[in-house]
Write a structure and sequence with these properties.
2 copies of one chain form a homodimer. Chain A is mainly alpha-helical. The first copy, chain A, has one domain: Orthogonal Bundle (Arc Repressor Mutant, subunit A). Chain A has 4 helices and 3 strands; from the N terminus they run H-E-H-H-E-E-H. In chain A, strands 1-3-2 form a 3-stranded antiparallel beta sheet. The radius of gyration of chain A is 17 Å and the shape is elongated. Chain A binds a DNA duplex through helix 2 and helix 3.
Chain lengths: 113, 113
Amino acid sequence: MKLDKSLLSGSTGLLVLKLLEDGDKYGYQMTEELRRRSDKTFELKSGTLYPLLHTLEQKGYITAWEEASDSSRPRRYYHLTDTGRKHLAEKEQEWRTYADAMVKVLKGGEGYA
Amino acid sequence: MKLDKSLLSGSTGLLVLKLLEDGDKYGYQMTEELRRRSDKTFELKSGTLYPLLHTLEQKGYITAWEEASDSSRPRRYYHLTDTGRKHLAEKEQEWRTYADAMVKVLKGGEGYA
DNA sequence: TTGACTTATGTCGATATTCGATATATCATG
DNA sequence: CATGATATATCGAATATCGACATAAGTCAA
C-alpha cells in the first residue's frame, strides 16, 4: 500500500529526537532504526534527514561530534541536549493531543448533529 | 498551550471529508463543527479551508451547490461524492497506519537496541 | 445610528516541509 | 570489476498552511 507521506508531516523532528533519547546516533543509523521500529512505515529520505539534523542543531536541540577516523569518511554522531530533551517532551505531549482530537473527529459526528 | 499547527499537517483534507460524511455542509460550518468535535484542537483558518475545498472539488471528491438566496451572499454547500467516500476510507486507513507506527516509535527503543 | 462583532467566502504572498534527483566516497560481495 | 550497501550532503520543485487582507451582510448594544 502506498502511503501518503504528507499525512503526518511535521512530526519528523519529533521522531528523530525520540531516537536520540536512547543514546547518540548518526544519520544513516537513524533512518535504519526508524524503519525498523515503525515496521517500515517511516522511511526517512536523506534529502529530508540531513537538512533536518542541521536545523535541529541550529536550534540547540542536538549537538554533533565526528567519529575519529583516518581513512574513511567520518560519521557524524548526534547527541540530544537538555534543551532538546525538554522540547521532545513538549512535542510528544502535543502529538498525543492531536492524535486524541483526530480520533474524536474520526469517531463520527452522530452525537453532535 | 500553544500547539504546533504543522504537527499533523496533511490530514486536513481527511478531516474535511470526514465532516461531510454526515451530510452536506458549508465552509464556515465545517470550521465550527471541527472545532467542536475536536475540543478546540483543530481550528481551521479560512486561508486553509477555502483553497482546500476548491482542490477537493477539482479532484472530484466533493461537489458544490449554492443555497438559493435573494438578498444575502449565498452559502456554498459541499457534498461528498462516491469517489470522495472511497478516498476518505483509504485516508482513514492510512492515518491509522501512521498513528500506530508513531505509537511504536514513541513507546521507546529499549527492546531494540 | 454608529460602531463592534459574528457570519461567510475568498485571494495572496510568505514560510516550512518533504521529496526526488544528483553528487561524492568508502567498503564488501560476487 | 561492477553492483549494492553504507554514509553525508545539496538543490530545486512541489505542496501545505498561515497571516493578512478584502468584501459583505446581519445582529446587538450604547
